[in-house]
Specification:
Oligomer: single chain
Structural class: alpha+beta
Radius of gyration: 17 Å
Strand order of the largest sheet: 2-3-4-7-6-5
Distance between the termini: 17 Å
Strand content: 25-35%
Length: 158
Amino acid sequence: MGVLEIVREFGALHQRMKRGQLAAGELRAYDAARERALQVLIATQPLQPGQKARHSLRAACAIQADITLHDGMVVEPTLDISSGGFAVLFQEAPRIGDEVEAVLHIPGEEPLEARALVTNTAPHGKDTRVGFRFVGLDVSDAERLDTFVLDVVLRHFL
């Protein structure tokens, strides 16, 4: 079975799960299909030369991020997001290693509050792309992010 078939098959199951249409006996099959689809999707994500393979699915997605820095708050849309972190454009970038408080406004859900660490910066036109890694994110918040990112990615296949 190819990538497209695996993802589409899981997508149909995922939509049923979100509507509450899975029988109790189907939940194990859903979990296995989800894990397989995530592995396939993560493996197909492009990497830059020298970049390590990702551990979580990432999607290009603009949601509001309220980022509290040592000198104030910045409100910007994300460029991409995963359960491991997110990226935002800054006019004046924080330093690599800075820790921030972030509030991500996931559509249809309560805002997610988390600590994050600046892990990388890169010029992006007149701005700077800043990558953040979540610090101490609890399992339920990571699951919320995984589900949101999966929903975003599945929209391209269904």
